[in-house]
Design a protein that fits this description.
Elements: E1 2-5, E2 14-17, E3 27-37, H1 39-46, E4 62-69, E5 81-84, E6 87-88, H2 94-97, E7 108-109, E8 121-125, E9 129-131, H3 143-156, E10 164-167, H4 171-182, E11 188-191, H5 195-205, E12 208-210, E13 220-225, H6 230-236, E14 240-248, H7 262-267, E15 271-274, H8 282-296, E16 300-305, H9 309-318, E17 323-327
Parallel strand pairs: 10-11, 10-13, 11-12, 13-14, 14-15, 16-17
Antiparallel strand pairs: 1-2, 3-4, 3-8, 3-17, 4-5, 5-9, 6-7
């Protein structure tokens, strides 16, 4: 089968012919119908991630048709169209036993620790499959990122009428802003440095999206960093109103460091929280998208064939796209 392979961090991604996977016990083989490209994939390509194992087939936002079943699988059948939660938990550690699988000591992911879905076929645990019967398939490549945003929303536990400042107007920042809007937070402001992306996002979402210069005096009850950039985080944490909350939502480099004033955090009773991947939010994301699909649909701006992946990565990096997905 054809698959996109990265041999090591910093190496050029290549479309190769590789052996098709087979399903083990409790697993399924899925024929990929769509898979988003994420900022985490950029980390995997450029600098590596602690959980990534090379050579690697990326792709952790997949959906597709069940092609074959391993032994002991009864929750899906061949031919079913499913979305796959890429999260892999050991089920045995202290965190897993507390139903906190996203904090698993042995946490992994399809497209990170295990071969991913930038391929014609991929393997997944059957228990990670969610039926897409009755779901609008044109937005199925957004399910996984929406599930991450739902987890962020749950961690933030926002109150209606509170103000929001989201720093970073990429896919994840916009998704979280949309969810906060649906949940009654107002006003909501998104800060985006890339002028092309800023203009596109403004047209697609109707949100108030401004430049960093325009945001110099902005403050909010909830300030969310969706960039993972240390200098941006250091500035963003100063934008939290007294009694407010700062959320680390973007993925920073493993070795990144930031500095801030502990006195300011103390004096203004600022809460600091974070959100990591997906936890009990994949199914709720599907249900939410069935109702509010029109709010999310405009964000999927580009789709490319698997053999056009280089062009897909270029378009994503250019700022001319919001969400980009691959298909076979």
């Amino acid at each position: 089968m054809k698959a996109i392979v990265i041999s090591k961090p910093g190496a050029k991604a290549e479309l190769r012919e590789v052996e098709a996977p087979t399903a083990g016990g409790g697993e399924i083989v899925v024929s990929m119908m769509g898979c988003g490209i994420c900022g985490t994939d950029h980390h995997i390509v450029e600098e590596g991630l602690p959980t990534a194992k090379y050579p690697i087939i990326p792709g952790h936002e997949p959906w597709g048709r069940v092609f074959s079943l391993g032994t002991g699988v009864s929750n899906v059948k061949v031919g079913d169209v499913v979305a796959i939660d890429p999260s892999l938990h050991c089920g045995m550690c202290d965190q897993c036993r507390q139903a906190k699988g996203n904090l698993c000591k042995n946490w992994g992911a399809i497209g990170g620790s295990n071969p991913g879905a930038w391929a014609e076929y991929f393997v997944a645990p059957a228990k990670n499959a969610y039926s897409l019967e009755g779901f609008p398939l044109d937005i199925a490549s957004l399910i996984e990122p929406v599930a991450c945003a739902v987890r962020g929303l749950n961690r933030l536990n926002p109150q209606q009428g509170k103000s929001v400042l989201v720093v970073g107007g990429g896919t994840m920042g916009l998704l979280l802003a949309i969810l906060l809007d649906i949940n009654g937070c107002q006003p909501i402001t998104v800060v985006e440095a890339n002028s092309k992306r800023r203009e596109i996002s403004r047209k697609l979402t109707g949100l108030n999206i401004i430049s960093p210069d325009q945001a110099r005096s902005s403050r909010a009850d909830y300030v969310i960093d969706a960039t993972g950039i240390p200098a941006v985080i250091e500035d963003a944490i100063t934008r939290v109103s007294a009694g407010g909350t700062f959320m680390v939502f973007g993925v920073a480099s493993e070795h990144a460091k930031v500095s801030f004033s502990p006195y300011a955090i103390y004096k203004d009773e600022i809460q600091i929280t974070s959100s990591m991947a997906i936890l009990h939010s994949f199914g709720p994301a599907i249900d939410l998208m069935k109702v509010h699909g029109d709010r999310f649909r405009p964000l999927l701006t580009h789709t490319f064939k698997l053999n056009e992946f280089e062009k897909a990565l270029q378009v994503l990096s250019s700022g001319e796209a919001i969400k980009v997905a691959l298909e076979p």
